TrEMBL record:
Protein name: TSPO protein
Keywords: Membrane, Transmembrane, Transmembrane helix
Cell location: Membrane
Membrane-spanning parts: 6-26, 47-66, 78-95, 135-155
InterPro entries: TspO/MBR-related_sf, TspO_MBR
Amino acid sequence: RGRMWAYTVGFTVLPHVGGFLGWFINRKEIPVWYEKLKKPSWCPSRRVFPVAWTVLYTGMGYASYLVWNDLGGCSSKALIPLGLYGAQLALNWAWPPFFFGAKNMKMALIDILCLDGLAIGTMCSWYRINKVATLLMVPYLGWLAMATCLTIRIWKDNPEEKPGKSE
């Protein structure tokens, strides 16, 4: 019982690890490449993203702890609910390298569409286990909806250059 705080902190911090690495690896591309892209008027300011992701990662990390705890840790019952969570988290972490690193908006779009499905699947699998955990994922799903629309608009409004064509 005394070590439960360590599990709480570990689960809560875990999503931040990949988020921080994604930012750290791609941080130089953001002011150089991203700022030059055509973006819709409703695109959030660059300053909003780190604040939003800090709140969202904290909520989803704590939610995963609640589900893990309610299922008695790493049991066979936890395989699907936490497996879906892990899969969506991996796709979440993969988006920045696709978008900023490879500048491959099509792969980033495929990634985020799959991520949306896995996030919804995660929430559906969590609903009977812990409703608070499911509710903690709602802001994340809302942000993903906006991020998906933004990815679609940026992909459509910024056609990728074909190899061999120069201006």
